[in-house]
Design brief:
Blueprint: H1 12-23, H2 28-36, E1 41-45, E2 56-61, E3 64-69, E4 72-76, H3 79-91, E5 95-99, H4 105-126, H5 132-153
Antiparallel strand pairs: 1-5, 2-3, 3-4
């Protein structure tokens, strides 16, 4: 005998809420708010992606690592930064905060990429047996919600603030 399947949520909004709940601490805006913006950061702007062209690639060139977003290229200091920025470029964010401490970027890039791919896998799983249009609607809503929440959190200042006071000794 076959096991009975649980009834599925009927609307896009219900499935989106279910996926966000399943992601929990791995919801991209939550990682961004709690682990990126909580530390010293600098703002980085990303090129706008044309509606039909969401292609994001990391390229190794003679001059270093570049992130190619559509037809535009952004020079990155290292592979970890390119991977970090690629996740936000796939979401369609215009500007994001990049940690000033480069030793933390690699771990954050790993976590953000994992969360992004888990979001896509959960979308596929939760919309199994549904039409392509329904699946695309759920995915578009999730990515749009994540992008909007990240933009609301903001990218912060373009240069990090150093809260050190300097004293000059009198002569």
């Amino acid at each position: 005998m076959r096991a009975r399947r649980q009834p599925r949520a009927a609307t896009v909004e219900a499935i989106v809420a279910e996926i966000k709940n399943a992601l929990g601490d791995e919801w991209l805006p939550r990682i961004y708010r709690e682990r990126v913006r909580a530390q010293r950061t600098r703002a980085c702007s990303l090129p706008a992606v044309a509606r039909g062209n969401k292609r994001v690639e990391i390229q190794h060139t003679l001059l270093g690592v570049e992130l190619k977003v559509g037809r535009r290229r952004v020079h990155c200091p290292d592979l970890a930064t390119a991977r970090y920025l690629a996740t936000f470029a796939r979401l369609g964010c215009k500007s994001v905060a990049v940690p000033y401490d480069i030793t933390r970027i690699s771990r954050l890039a790993d976590d953000l990429e994992s969360a992004f791919h888990r979001l896509l896998l959960l979308t596929e799983h939760m919309t199994e047996g549904r039409g392509t249009v329904f699946r695309r609607s759920v995915r578009a809503r999730l990515l749009g919600d994540a992008r909007r929440e990240i933009e609301e959190i903001g990218a912060g200042p373009s240069a990090p603030q150093f809260n050190q006071t300097t004293r000059q000794r009198g002569g």
